[in-house]
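Input (structure):
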């Protein structure tokens, strides 16, 4: 007999029973995304390698400190705030450095790199249970903190890529360079006509934009991506949070309901690198934004059809297709952003996007929980997520079509201006040649070969 849903709020439906339950993990993810702008600034200033090593230290310290906590608030500080900051300092540099290492096969590299997340999702849940049964939650946090310290080893393997250094100056050249620098500083000091306050404001803005480029908010493709993703994340993570409770509501036992997430993770693990291979093909990569839009729409259609799954086999089919759609979106989430803004501005773009997205990621599950409490049925939450995802995919598809058309027009106009600029001297030269040829022909036999013949 199916147990009826009790009217409860989202907070009470996800009560804290043990440290490995969904809410704490979700808090870590929210804090990780909220701190990505800090990671962008640090990566721009110090590079990827030291930031990842420092992030690994924070992850280890946060999880080890969580093993000594005595309240849920302390766990949110240690496992949420400190570990979330450490994970943010690990995630973003890892994504950024892919764009520096790869260009031709970057979508495949992104897909393979993103495949590590579902691998850990498959193995971490049973490992957590094993650790919890043998060492308790305190010992489990302590061991997980030691495991996360391996992020420092991964960061040490990041080979820094930068501009080639010039040759060393000889002793004779050094005084000349110092003299030129001194003259330049003197010239700057003599520019007393400018307002010092305006100069300081301008320098401050330039330094800030150097680490976090706010001019991206004037970039058409970036704004389209940002609006579409903000809408998408209202329904992206909520089905994962409520999939197991929905299965229990349908009368499925606890272990079988939890296995649905494992099925999703296994399919996701295969889907991400496969999506990278497809996205790197010559037919898809030039218009990769359309493929990303299709993935989001496919994700939404899966949620719209989920209420039709009334038994366990139907939920297994839903988990397979949802894992495929989820992997497709995750594999191209950063690749499409890099395709729009370029590798040079990608560091700032990731930081700006994630700080905006974390707000909708935070709102998605509570809105879904409110719908469940209001109607007493999980299907309205899945319908909400499906409609939101389909609308986000359609928005991105239409706006990317507009963006591609505008880029083609701008490129055509730019090529026309360049051709017109290059054509001016050639036409003038042609007129002069014709005049010279006519004059030589009238005066007598040509004794000098024409320039057109020599060319």
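Output (sequence):
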């Amino acid at each position: 007999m199916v147990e009826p849903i009790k009217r409860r709020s989202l907070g009470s439906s996800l009560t804290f029973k043990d440290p490995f339950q969904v809410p704490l993990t979700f808090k870590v993810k929210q804090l990780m995304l909220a701190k990505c702008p800090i990671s962008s600034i640090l990566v721009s200033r110090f590079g990827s390698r030291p930031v990842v090593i420092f992030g690994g230290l924070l992850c280890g310290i946060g999880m080890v400190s969580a093993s000594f906590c005595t309240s849920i608030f302390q766990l949110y500080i240690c496992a949420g705030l400190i570990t979330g900051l450490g994970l943010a300092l690990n995630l973003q540099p890892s994504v950024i450095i892919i764009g520096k290492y790869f260009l031709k096969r970057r979508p495949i590299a992104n897909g393979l790199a993103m495949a590590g997340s579902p691998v850990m999702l498959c193995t971490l849940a049973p490992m957590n249970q094993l650790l919890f049964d043998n060492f308790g939650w305190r010992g489990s946090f302590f061991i997980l903190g030691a495991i996360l310290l391996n992020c420092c080893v991964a960061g040490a393997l990041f080979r820094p890529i930068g501009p080639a250094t010039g040759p060393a100056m000889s002793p004779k050249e050094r005084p000349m360079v110092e003299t030129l620098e001194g003259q330049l500083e003197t010239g700057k000091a003599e520019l007393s006509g400018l307002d010092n306050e305006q100069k300081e404001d301008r320098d401050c803005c330039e330094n800030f934009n150097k680490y976090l480029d706010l001019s991206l908010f004037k970039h058409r493709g970036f704004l389209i991506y940002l609006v579409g993703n903000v809408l998408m994340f209202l329904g992206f993570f909520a089905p994962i949070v409520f999939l197991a409770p929905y299965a229990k509501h349908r009368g499925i036992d606890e272990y079988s309901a939890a296995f649905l997430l494992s099925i999703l993770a296994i399919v996701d693990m295969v889907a991400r690198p496969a999506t990278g291979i497809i996205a790197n093909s010559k037919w898809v990569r030039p218009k990769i934004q359309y493929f990303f839009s299709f993935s989001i729409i496919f994700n939404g259609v899966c949620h719209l059809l989920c209420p039709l799954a009334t038994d366990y086999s139907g939920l297994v089919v839903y988990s397979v297709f949802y894992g495929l759609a989820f992997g497709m979106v995750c594999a191209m989430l950063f690749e499409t952003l890099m395709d729009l803004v370029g590798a040079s501005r990608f560091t700032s773009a990731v930081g700006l996007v994630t700080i905006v997205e974390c707000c909708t990621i935070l709102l998605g599950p509570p809105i879904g929980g409110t719908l469940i409490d209001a109607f007493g049925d999980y299907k309205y939450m899945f319908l909400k997520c499906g409609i939101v995802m389909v609308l986000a995919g359609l928005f991105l598809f239409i706006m990317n079509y507009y963006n591609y058309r505008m880029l083609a027009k701008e490129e055509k106009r730019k090529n026309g201006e360049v051709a017109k600029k290059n054509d001016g001297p050639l036409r003038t030269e042609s007129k002069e040649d014709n005049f010279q040829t006519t004059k030589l022909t009238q005066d007598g036999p040509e004794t000098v070969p024409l320039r057109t013949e020599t060319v």
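Notes: The radius of gyration is 29 Å. Confidence is low (pLDDT under 50) at residues 1-32, 183-194, 428-432, 435-455.
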